[in-house]
Write a structure and sequence with these properties.
- The protein has 209 residues and is mostly helical.
- The chain folds into two domains: 51 residues, Arc Repressor Mutant, subunit A; 147 residues, Tetracycline Repressor, domain 2 (Orthogonal Bundle), CATH 1.10.357.10.
- The chain contains eleven helices and no strands.
- It is globular and about 55 Å long.
- It starts with 5 loop residues before the first helix and ends in a 5-residue tail after the last helix.
């Protein structure tokens, strides 16, 4: 395979993103370095700069990939179901997001840093994928709740997508956070991603039951 081939470039980008995703399971965004990511790839650390100029660009590519996987699940939902009740749709949508914990974590904690420290081309690519996620959710709403107007769908969109930015902090706490809440006498409830998202969607769509 030629050294500069598109296939090799894409394969190496994917390997870099996979290394980043693996590290993000056990390390924080600020802890992870290009050196750490490079150590988990099959090529030299300096080679990473042929594909990504900053750590943030790698994370942004990971976030874009997470969105693409979410979009694929939404499209499958729309494809295999002719009709859905509010409860079934809410359950399905919540479960697609439960699979995307890394996406929710990156959105809530690191989006600003990723966008500020990424080149414009990378940011535009991500924004296009994000826009597609909006369109795909809108398509599902139009299909399953055809009496929703454009204004209704817009209202759902403006509530639902900002809501997602706060899901991860409410469903995941470190031991240090738990200890602080306990000492501050803050009552906390253990919630799953599905457990917090599904009731919200049901409430948002209650007029179309």
């Amino acid at each position: 395979m030629p050294k500069g081939s598109e296939e090799l470039t894409n394969a190496r980008k994917e390997e870099i993103i996979n290394a980043c995703a693996s590290l993000y399971q056990t390390m924080g965004f600020r802890e992870i370095t290009i050196r750490d990511i490079g150590a988990k790839t099959s090529f030299t650390r300096t080679s990473i700069y042929n594909y990504f100029q900053t750590k943030e660009e790698i994370f942004l590519a990971l976030l874009e990939r997470e969105y693409e996987a979410w979009i694929a699940d939404l499209e499958e939902t729309a494809c295999i179901n002719e009709t859905m009740t509010v409860d079934k749709f809410a359950d399905s949508l919540a479960h697609t997001l439960e699979k995307r914990a890394s996406m929710l974590k990156l959105m809530s904690m690191n989006l600003y840093d990723m966008e500020v420290n990424s080149r414009m081309d990378n940011l535009i690519s991500f924004k296009k994928t994000y826009a597609k996620s909006l369109d795909t959710v809108n398509f599902c709403l139009k299909k399953f709740f055809p009496t929703m107007t454009a204004g209704d769908i817009r209202e759902f969109q403006y509530a639902f997508f900002p809501f997602l930015f706060g899901v991860y902090p409410y469903t995941t706490h470190t031991d240090k956070q738990k200890e602080a809440m306990e000492k501050a006498h803050v009552q906390s409830e253990s919630l799953s991603i599905c457990g917090i998202i599904k009731p919200f969607i049901v409430k948002m769509l209650k007029d179309w039951e």
